[in-house]
Amino acid sequence: ERDYALDRDCKTLSRHVLEQLHSFSPDAQDLSALMNRIGLAGKLIARRLSRAGLMEGVLGFTGDVNVQGESVKKMDIYANEVFISVFKQSGLVCRLASEEMEDPYYIPENCPVGRYTLLYDPIDGSSNVDININVGSIFSIRQQEGDDSDETARDLLQNGHKQIAAGYILYGPSTMLVYSIGRGVHAFTLDPSLGEFILSNENIQTPTHGPVYSVNEGNFWQWEEPLRDYIRYVHRHEGYTARYGGAMVGDFHRILFQGGVFLYPGTVKKPEGKLRLLYESAPMAFLIEQAGGRASTGTQDILDVVPDKLHARTPLVIGSTEDVTLVESFIQDRARER
Ligand code: P6P
């Protein structure tokens, strides 16, 4: 059969980044090295996940609760430490901010020389790990601004336009790494026999409309009325189909390629919703806009939102331009009528 690795002259992740920047400047070298480390983290996590059922200490809970008030899975801790370890050795990253850690983790030997901050959700959708359904890692890279000598990381509380790179790793039937450094969205597939991520989709563009709406309808009665009206609309109209996997990375990946809309709305009790801005919604918003789609809170572009704290949450409506705009029209029109 055709060997894509050779067809695409084995274009690896690090080489692709350098080509993206048409330069071998220090910044380009840094970004290429950073993406390489992300790839290494992805390989280490994919390897452990692929053997989860065969090894002690991989599945199940640690018994702890994280800063989000969620039960911590053993895989959450392992993946969190993988990112810390591979970036410690990189020399480029001074701080890591993770869903699993209350405060950013500082790597003193890399500060202040290390000019970058990694924000990440090490295992997104970890409730899927024990049932062998896809999960993901989400990452966002920002330049550190100021010396942050008091380690309050206030410079992270800026909008998503400050991201210089973002993406995710999808641990599915194959392991894929999807990233953007602001020059389009590109997907790589891990060839385990080579131990390399090989380019598989370049300059991905999400369709302007798609049939999929992806939302947890179990929350229907907790939503505001305008959102219920949107769900009633897609129920009534031909051409829509529901898909929801319980792990945003997989649901987002489907929409990136096939179009449609993913929603995690606020509820009456939690108007800010569940997903965190800095390391879930903002990186995905960066990607979808690079792919010609949109990401909104329902009333504001995600990339314009300025968080008040590291683990700030926002409602999220993300995907094809026409579908996101339709959801906003329900939320905003109804809001005006109220
Ligand atoms: P619910 C996983 O915990 C996550 O953060 C996202 O990956 C996923 O889309 C969402 O929460 C699922 O939440 O409330 O539908 O189970």
TrEMBL record:
Residues at which Mg(2+) 2 binds: D121, D124, E280
GO molecular function: fructose 1,6-bisphosphate 1-phosphatase activity; magnesium ion binding
Top EC class of this enzyme: hydrolase
GO cellular component, one term: cytosol
Catalytic function, reaction form: beta-D-fructose 1,6-bisphosphate + H2O = beta-D-fructose 6-phosphate + phosphate
InterPro entries: FBPase_C_dom, FBPase_class-1, FBPase_N, FBPtase, Fructose_bisphosphatase_AS
Primary residence: cytoplasm
GO annotation terms (biological process): fructose 1,6-bisphosphate metabolic process; fructose 6-phosphate metabolic process; fructose metabolic process; gluconeogenesis; reductive pentose-phosphate cycle; sucrose biosynthetic process
SUPFAM superfamilies cross-referenced by the UniProt entry: Carbohydrate phosphatase
Residues holding Mg(2+) 1: E99, D121, I123
Residues that coordinate or bind substrate: D124, G125, S126, S127, N216, Y244, K274
Compartment annotation: Cytoplasm
Cofactor descriptive note: Binds 2 magnesium ions per subunit.
Known pathway: Carbohydrate biosynthesis; Calvin cycle
Record's keyword terms, sorted: Calvin cycle, Carbohydrate metabolism, Cytoplasm, Hydrolase, Magnesium, Metal-binding
Domain Fructose-1-6-bisphosphatase class I N-terminal intervals: 11-202
Pfam families documented for this protein: FBPase, FBPase_C
EC nos: 3.1.3.11
Superkingdom to which the source organism belongs: Bacteria
Cofactor: Mg(2+)
Similarity remark: Belongs to the FBPase class 1 family.
Protein name, as recorded: Fructose-1,6-bisphosphatase class 1
Organism: Phormidesmis priestleyi ULC007
Recorded name of the encoding gene: fbp
